[in-house]
Specification:
By secondary structure, the chain is an all-alpha fold. Helices cover 66% and strands 0% of the residues. Helix 2 runs antiparallel to helix 3 and helix 3 packs antiparallel against helix 4. The radius of gyration is 22 Å and the shape is globular.
């Protein structure tokens, strides 16, 4: 084992190197998630020439990747500081405090990318309150460790109600209060439900969209 590997595997440095590894993973994950999404959205709704669209794709990918890298490293840093203040022990509220501060610093400034990330997170938080399906998998009780906990899907009956209410609500909002819907979703819904009302011939019915709307 090389001296570098010995240093990297030294338990005394683990928590500090975990911050670096967290930043790396956040950056990589941000690129993997945002780049294909940005490409698809640019093809469907993008404006301008291909150079302009490519710049928008790279800009969104960069913002997403650096934001996740920043949040993960900040979150881990705050957790570490709290443990040191509390004699090496992690309290139950430490993760919430670290997430609270990290979320405010990283995602507190409104941008299209930040808004999408926050809405993604809040939808998962709300869905977590759905009753879970019965399973033999351990839950996040005091008897389970982080390594043994596995996600449990929602109970199918409650999920059906949740899905129905979600779609009923968003369709009503789109019709009556469209200005309150997140822009990316509004663009998608416009393409699906309003643009599909317009055609002049077989080509514009099945092959191409008749008009190019401003999806700003």
């Amino acid at each position: 084992m090389s001296s570098i590997d010995t240093w990297l595997l030294n338990p005394a440095f683990h928590d500090y190197l975990a911050i670096l590894k967290g930043a790396r993973n956040g950056f990589v994950y941000g690129v993997k998630v945002r780049f294909p999404h940005a490409v698809v959205m640019s093809l469907l709704f993008g404006r301008g020439n291909w150079i302009t669209r490519l710049q928008a794709i790279l800009r969104a990918t960069k913002e997403h990747a650096f934001s996740l890298a920043k949040f993960v490293s900040l979150y881990k840093t705050i957790l570490l500081l709290q443990r040191k203040v509390n004699g090496g022990k992690e309290r139950g509220c430490d993760t919430f405090i670290a997430g609270l501060i990290g979320g405010y610093v990283t995602f507190g400034d409104r941008s299209a990318v930040n808004e999408q990330i926050v809405l993604y997170v809040v939808s998962r938080v709300l869905a977590s309150f759905l009753p879970r399906a019965r399973t033999n998998n351990p839950t996040s009780s005091v008897l389970a460790t982080e390594a043994t906990v596995r996600p449990i899907p929602p109970d199918a009956r409650y999920f059906s109600v949740f899905a129905a209410l979600s779609w009923g609500a968003v369709m009503w909002l789109f019709k009556n209060r469209g200005e309150t819907i997140q822009p990316g979703m509004f663009n998608s819904m416009t393409y699906l439900y309003r643009d599909s009302e317009v055609w002049t011939n077989l080509r514009t019915l099945l092959v191409v969209q008749q008009v190019t709307l401003d999806y700003g």
